[in-house]
Amino acid sequence: MIIATGKSSLIDEMKVQSGQNPAECYQCAKCSAACPVTAAMDLLPHQVIRYLQLGLEEDLLKSKTPWICASCFTCAARCPRDLDLARMMEGIRLSMLRRREGNKFGPADLTPEQLEKLPQQALVSGFRKYNK
Amino acid sequence: MRYRYFPGCTLKGQAKSMEDTAMAAAAALGIELIELDEWQCCGAVYPLYEDELISLLSPVRTLAAAAGEPLVSLCSACHHVLKRAQELMQRNQDARHKVTDFLEVEYSGEGRVLHFLEVLRDDLGFDKLTEMIKKPLEGRKVAAYYGCLLLRPSKVMQFDDPENPTIMEDLLKTLGAEVVKSPYRTECCGAYLSVTEEGVASDTVARIIDSARQAGAEALITACPLCRYNLENCSREDGKEPIKVYYFSELLAEAMGLPGESTGADGSKEEVAQR
Ligand code: SF4
Ligand code: SF4
Questions:
Q1: ipTM
Q2: Distance between CA atoms of A79 and A56, rounded to whole angstroms?
Q3: Are B195 and A121 an interchain contact pair (Cβ–Cβ within 8 Å)?
Q4: Which domain holds residue A128?
Q5: CA B102, chain centre distance (Å)
Q6: Mean pLDDT of B176-203
Q7: Interface mutation target, options A121, A123, A128, A129, chain B, most CBs of B under 10 Å
C-alpha cells in the first residue's frame, strides 16, 4: 500500500475551488480512454488523479499533461463517478501560473504567420489558459 | 421573435461570414437579433476554478445587459461562456455578490441564454424553416461537426444529447442536404492547442477529417470559428481530396437563397449562393 505523503496545499485548494474530491476516483481510467490528446501526455488523465490522491504535488507540477489538456470536457462527460477532471487540470495550471512559474506563453511567442492567421478566439483562449 | 444578440470578437473579424449569413437568415425568418451596446469579448474560455472571478466580469456584464430578454450568440465559445457564467450566478451566491457588486449591476441568473441553433430548433421550429428553403442542398454530402463547447458539460449546456446529438443533422436535413454521420463529430479539434502545440491539434484534426471522409462527407459544418480554423489549417497534407468546412449559417443562407460569402480561415472567399 502506498501512503499519501503529508498535506498538500494544491490538493486542499483544489477541493474548494474546483468542487472536486480526487479521493472519489476509483481509477477505472475511462477518462484516459476518452481523452483525445493522451498521445502527447506524460501522465494519463487517470494517473493525474492518482497523483492527486497520493499528494504527489511536485511531480504533478512538473508534468506536461495539464498543458496538453484542451479543456474539451470529454473526461468529465464519461466519468462514472461524475468527477470533473477538466477542473482539476485547470487547478494544476493555475497553481503554476499564479505562484510558481509565471506565464507559459505570451504575445512575444507568436510567429508573424500565427498573428495574421489565428482567429481572435484562439488568441484570447491561448492567453487565458497559459498566461496570468 | 425578439432577442438580444451578443456577437463576440471573432464574429466581427475572422468569422464575419458566420455573422453576415446568420443575420441575413434571421431577418428573412422574422427573427429580430438586436446587438447589445458596447459589448466586450466574453473571454473565450470559461474559468474552471471558482475563484477566477475576474474572468467572469465580462460575461456577467453581458448577461446583465440583456436585462432579462433572451440572449443569443452564434459562436459556440461565446455561448458556452455565457451559459456557464449564468449557471454559476444561479448556483454560487458568494461569486454572484462579488461580481455584481464590482460591476455595479443587478443580476441573479435570469433570462434565457441561447445559441442561434436552439432558436431555429425550439423557437422557430425546423418545420417552419422548411417552408423558407428555396434552394435545397440536393445531393450535397454534408456532415455535422459539433466539437465540445455546445454539448459539454451537458447538465449546464442542455443543448442536446452530449453523446448522440441530432440538432445539426436535423438542420442539414431541413436544408435538403444528404446528411452524413461521422463518429468523430463530438470529438475535440484540439481547441487552443493550435496556438501552442500545433502537432497535437493536427492529430485530433486528422482523426475528425478522416472519419468524416470515410463516412462519405464532402463538407463539414461547424458553429465555432476555432474549430473551423483548426480543421482548415491544422490538417496534414495527405494527398486526399480536402473536405470543405462551412459555418452552419453559410449553408442555411445558401439554402434560403440569400446572398452571402463564405470566408475560409485562409481568407479565401466564396459566394454562398453560387455554389
Ligand atoms: S473516469 Fe472518473 S473514476 Fe474513472 S479514473 Fe477517470 S476520474 Fe477516476
Ligand atoms: S478535458 Fe483535458 S484531460 Fe479531459 S478529455 Fe479533454 S483534453 Fe483530456
A1: 0.92
A2: 22
A3: no
A4: 105-132
A5: 30
A6: 94
A7: A121
